[in-house]
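job 3f2a | input accepted
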Amino acid sequence: MRLAKNLAHSGVASRRAAETMIAAGRVTIDGATVTDPARDVTGAETIAVDGEPVGAAPRRVVYALHKPAGVVSTARDTHGRPTVVDLVPEARTRLYPVGRLDADTTGLILLTNDGALADHLTHPRYEVPKTYRAKVANPPVGERAVQRLRDGVALDDGPTAPARARRVRPDVIELTIREGRKRQVRRMCEAVGHPVVSLERIAFGPLRLGGLGPGEHRQLTPAEIERLRRG
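job 3f2a | predicted structure (231 res):
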């Protein structure tokens, strides 16, 4: 098996990211640095990345990322589009997005290698709140439209649960939901007469986007991860 493929199968990174690591001289085989991603390995060798043996249980990590528009919320994309995982190349472990944002939606998304935490944060029974800020058409947004969002909106797949909603500006609505239906915020706003022009997620559970610029990311602290688990 080729070295890059071995690293990908071991959960170190995607094959593309593994090739980059190898070319950068971060990978050793039996103590010797290897820069050829096509190097054949049998599995009996001692392979290490940045001095850490491959095969050891990966440290559980969570990253907060400000997803730009046009980036897809998957670990890999068959159409060659940039993914959220591509924006965290130094992770040294295979990351997966926690839930999804549409390609044209921006804002806070979490990436982790902790499957149990990801399941907890996305399972409907835990009702983890997510807050969005939507710039909408047909301003100004009236109190009647905001109240409909608060009460729940009838969609083609059933009524939504009550949401927290407020008007930030005549053309901007802030909306907090605890469900995760496909394009839910966009459909809710359209149902009350204000189609979304642009949409940004500004909070996920207790975490806020804060000062992260588009494309920027940071690793969460243990205390922040614990807050997510409790949230």
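job 3f2a | The mean pLDDT is 92.
job 3f2a | closed
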